[in-house]
């Protein structure tokens, strides 16, 4: 399982791409990409739908396939305070909270908790959240540098893939956990046969493999382009309009449906059945009822906004969304990443038994360190005494 998790880090990376935009917002409005004088006003011009991407679609500069032209409104949104200030703060919070919380949780689950089927699933969830935090520093540097990517094309693809893989792999694992808990509560006798290590390992492996398959379109396409009339190399935030929509549209519709909406539906049905079973069991399950509701609410709150915005880009809902959807998508994606900070406290630290295991493990390590230092001190004292004789 450890090797499978490392394989997931290298291969996973579902990217959320695509969107239906309009010439009036994202295009330069002329027959050539470099004709900036003919750029229309943000809300003026032809309002017919034009297939584009979820990222800011740009026109390739004439005689320069490495540079993209963006209209003034798109450029202002891309370089505004949301991507250069708010998004780094959210990612920094994920690093500051998610990294130690998930690292400690994974260590306790692996070393201090009996290896039950549910433990296997929670270990995979903690590993997925931990991998997200470890993949964030390059993105954090990129946003803090004012959308300047210094690490090259391959690193951009890998960092983008690792970031997006958190969302989809985590949702798939959360759906697997909801099925496991539903079986335990709704069918307690039958679940003794069904809820084995083979089922838990199979569900976790399926989650990683499905996320890896959904990631392939992202890792196969170029992600870095120069922003025209600047020294900025963009990573994933602006992509060429021509020829992209036919490739990205089916890939990212599959991502939204298979990677988010179907797992959320499984969670709604599974936890709904769990809540009904607990509600008919009496007052002694009030805590479990509240905890189950919290788990379901947190998953919907963190993962739904970014995926709804993704679908709205493709459906072209109306003029009120033109030009602003990707600017709203960037913080919503960071909000999805924040779920990795919530998972440890909802799934692990809320349990008194788990907190006791954490204290036991920390005290054991502290006692071991103290014992080692005392032995070293005694050995040193003996050596000094011998030398004095």
Automatic annotation (TrEMBL):
Bilayer topology annotation: Multi-pass membrane protein
Keyword field: Blood coagulation, Cell membrane, Disulfide bond, G-protein coupled receptor, Glycoprotein, Hemostasis, Membrane, Receptor, Signal, Transducer, Transmembrane, Transmembrane helix
InterPro entries assigned: GPCR_Rhodpsn, GPCR_Rhodpsn_7TM, Prot_act_rcpt_4, Protea_act_rcpt
Subcellular location: Cell membrane
Annotated region (Disordered), positions in chain: 23-48, 369-389
UniProt keyword Cell membrane, yes or no: yes
Pfam families from the UniProt entry: 7tm_1
GO cellular component: plasma membrane
Transmembrane annotation, as ranges: 89-110, 122-142, 162-186, 198-220, 247-271, 291-314, 326-350
Keyword Glycoprotein assigned: yes
Domain of life: Eukaryota
Disulfide bonds listed in the record: 156-235
Single GO biological process annotation from the record: positive regulation of Rho protein signal transduction
One annotated GO molecular function: thrombin-activated receptor activity
Domain G-protein coupled receptors family 1 profile intervals: 101-347
Chief subcellular location: membrane
SUPFAM superfamilies referenced in this protein's UniProt entry, alphabetically: Family A G protein-coupled receptor-like
Residues annotated as signal peptide: 1-18
Family to which this protein belongs: Belongs to the G-protein coupled receptor 1 family.
Function according to Swiss-Prot or TrEMBL: Receptor for activated thrombin or trypsin coupled to G proteins that stimulate phosphoinositide hydrolysis. May play a role in platelets activation.
Protein name: Proteinase-activated receptor 4
């Amino acid at each position: 399982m450890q090797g499978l998790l490392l394989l997931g880090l290298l291969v996973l990376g579902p990217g959320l791409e695509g969107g239906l935009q309009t010439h009036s917002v994202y295009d330069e409005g002329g027959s050539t990409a470099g004709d900036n004088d003919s750029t229309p006003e943000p809300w003026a011009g032809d309002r017919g739908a034009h297939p584009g991407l979820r990222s800011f679609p740009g026109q390739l500069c004439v005689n320069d396939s490495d540079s993209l032209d963006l209209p003034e409104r798109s450029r202002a949104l891309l370089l505004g305070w949301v991507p250069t200030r708010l998004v780094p703060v959210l990612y920094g919070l994920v690093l500051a909270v998610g990294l130690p919380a998930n690292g400690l949780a994974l260590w306790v689950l692996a070393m201090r908790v009996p290896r039950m089927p549910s433990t296997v699933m929670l270990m995979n969830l903690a590993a997925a959240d931990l991998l997200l935090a470890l993949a964030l520093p390059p993105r954090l540097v990129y946003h803090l540098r004012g959308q300047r990517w210094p690490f090259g094309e391959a690193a951009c693809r890998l960092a983008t893939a690792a970031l997006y893989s958190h969302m989809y792999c985590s949702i798939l694992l959360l759906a697997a956990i909801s099925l496991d808990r539903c079986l335990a509560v709704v069918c307690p006798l039958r679940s003794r046969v069904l809820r084995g290590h083979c089922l838990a390992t199979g569900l976790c492996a399926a989650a990683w493999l499905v996320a890896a398959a959904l990631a392939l379109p992202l890792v196969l396409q170029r992600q870095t382009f120069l922003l025209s009339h600047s020294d900025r190399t963009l990573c994933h935030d602006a992509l060429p309009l021509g020829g992209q929509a036919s490739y990205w549209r089916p890939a990212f519709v599959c991502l939204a449906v298979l990677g988010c909406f179907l797992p959320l539906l499984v969670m709604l049905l599974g936890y709904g059945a769990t809540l009904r079973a607990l509600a008919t069991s009496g007052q002694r399950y009030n805590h479990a009822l509240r905890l189950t509701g919290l788990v379901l609410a947190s998953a919907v709150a963190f993962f739904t906004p970014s995926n709804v915005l993704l679908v709205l880009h493709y459906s072209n809902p109306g003029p009120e969304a033109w030009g602003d959807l990707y600017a709203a998508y960037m913080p919503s994606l960071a909000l999805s990443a924040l779920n990795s900070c919530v998972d440890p406290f909802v799934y692990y630290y809320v349990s008194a038994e788990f907190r006791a295991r954490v204290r036991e493990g920390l005290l054991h390590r502290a006692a071991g360190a103290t014992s080692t230092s005392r032995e070293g001190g005694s050995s040193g004292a003996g050596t000094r005494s011998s030398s004095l004789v």
